[in-house]
Design goal:
The chain is an alpha+beta fold and about 80 residues long. It has one domain: Ubiquitin-like (UB roll) (Roll). The protein is about 20% helix and about 35% strand. The protein contains two helices and five strands; from the N terminus they run αββαβββ. Strands 2-1-5-3-4 form a five-stranded mixed β-sheet, covered by helices on one side. It is globular.
Length: about 80
C-alpha cells in the first residue's frame, strides 16, 4: 500500500548528501528513510542544516528544495 500511495503523489526535487534526487511529495523524514531503504538504527538526519531528533522523524515533512544529510554509523574496528 505504501508504494501505491507514492505512485499517486507529485514528485519533488531535493538534495540528499549533496546529490539531487526526485522523491514523491508528502514524505516525512521517517518515510523518506523507508523510501530510500535505509534502516532507522544508527542513523542521524539533518534537514536544512538542523539535526532532526528521531522522535520527530514521523512528523517532520520533507519539502521541495530540502537539503538532507543522512549519516549512517557503522561499527567495527
Amino acid at each position: 500500500m505504501f508504494v501505491k500511495e507514492l505512485a499517486e503523489t507529485k514528485v519533488l526535487q531535493i538534495v540528499i548528501n549533496g546529490e539531487p534526487r526526485d522523491i514523491p511529495g508528502g514524505l516525512t523524514v521517517l518515510t523518506l528513510l523507508t523510501y530510500l531503504g535505509i534502516g532507522t538504527d544508527r542513523v542521524a538526519v539533518e534537514l536544512n542544516r538542523e539535526i532532526v531528533r528521531q522522535a520527530r522523524w514521523a512528523e517532520t515533512p520533507v519539502d521541495a528544495g530540502a537539503q538532507v544529510e543522512i549519516v549512517q554509523f557503522v561499527g567495527g574496528g
